[in-house]
Amino acid sequence: MNYETCYLGHSNSIDIVLKSQGATSTSSSAVDLATIDWMSLTFGSVVVTSTNNATQAIRWAKAGYVTGECRLFLGEATMATGAYDAPLIVYDAGDTTLGIMWGYIPIRVKSDPEGT
Hints:
Mean pLDDT: 87
Largest sheet: 5 strands, mixed
Number of domains: 1
CATH architecture: Sandwich
């Protein structure tokens, strides 16, 4: 499994495109995230949540983003270093108030390389 890397204390982003499975397991297409109200990622006991706000840790449906693009800015979060399979939950208050478990995002959290 390939892990994305989060560096605590830095503004690097993890850029992903959320896709919806089509009729077969190999077909998929990007999902329009314009109606999504909020998202959450969980790292052990730490839950990172964001409404669609340009300054929050999880951002989507912004100018310049492709359809389905979601950017994770996790450097300010307080999770412990380590490897996580972080579950991503997507909420649309109009249709999915309980949230949709989108899948697990493999993320390796590393300490600030300048903070040692």
